[in-house]
Design brief:
four-stranded mixed beta sheet, 22% strand, 12 helices, flat, alpha+beta, 34% helix
Amino acid sequence: MPKNGQGETHLFTSESVSMGHPDKVSDQISDALLDSLLRHDPDARVAIETLVTTGLVVVAGEVTVHNQQARDALGAAEDTIRDTIRKIGYDDPATGFDYRSCAVMRSIHSQSADISQGVTEGEGLHAEQGAGDQGLMFGFACDETKPLMPMAIHLAHRLVEQLADVRQNGGIAWLRPDSKSQVTVRYENGVPVGLDNVVISTQHTEAVLDSSRGGNMSESAEAEIIEKVVRPVIERECAGFWNDHIKIHINPTGRFIIGGPHGDCGLTGRKIIVDTYGGRGRHGGGAFSGKDPSKVDRSAAYMARHIAKNLVAAKLAKQAEVQLAYAIGVADPVSVHVDTFGTGELSNERLARLVRDTFPLKPAGIIEYLNLRRPVFFETARHGHFGRNGDGFTWEKTDRVTELKSAANVLQAV
């Protein structure tokens, strides 16, 4: 029998959505507002939810800031919201949603004092800064791709990223911001060996409609997406996987004119699987965007990814999933669990002990270690929170590999 019940051949699919998808518009607005406050107040407490629909943005939540500059930034929230929508690309009233004409409603109040005393160091029942809520968070990594992400979600993210690039640089002038991608990877004995199908659904102008196809998207437009988006991404990210046998579906309904918040209502936090690992591994249910790092939904999930990635980078496992769980107001995690799905060089129990001994797991320690009191979150709200490069993505660093290998050698000798 193959390890872990994996069959000889299986397919696995993940999806991603673009920056113009209505749920991602909401995520980006929430994180743009968060960044605008952290820029002036690194200790700001923020939990902002956003709803977008035809001609309307509604922002609600809890915010506590500690200086006048941050209060001024909060007062300028509408400007931040409109500028975010402009950057995404909704600048045409014909789409039913644009940054100039949309209405903006706000309902924001201060954080609950009951929560605050559990999170603020020196207050409440515990001397240390506690977790901002109870909950369980997961991090995952595997050796399928260079950034140690599952292949399907990695490719899906890169496809919508490429769609955004060619739209913004004029490479495909008829694209509009809303789009989705989906990638199905074929595995043999747990190893990716090829791509079965790729789906791209992208909003576009009427310029590419073909009357000979019943008013649907033209064949030449479909071919342009394949040649300027799909093929370059696959050839760059997984050399040797591109071939004529991959089933490619471009706008399989035929046309995609009505999109964005005019086509569907968007909400912050509704794309938690897109934001993480595309369905590989487990998810604790907590969303990220609009939450300051005192919320372990966000900071502990980032730390769990960092730990899992370092375990795989240290070759202590081919794939690793790390669970951290917390009680509100309590600093130490209530549990730490590691699962390597039978690929570990050490037992899961020993790896969990190694994690506790190596990484800071209290909320204050995580925030300091990952340098999270900075305005770095807007970029995470599109194209995935994991498997990314850049100064803000501190949780993607593999800087504990040598230490983990040495500690593992000691444990193996015991």
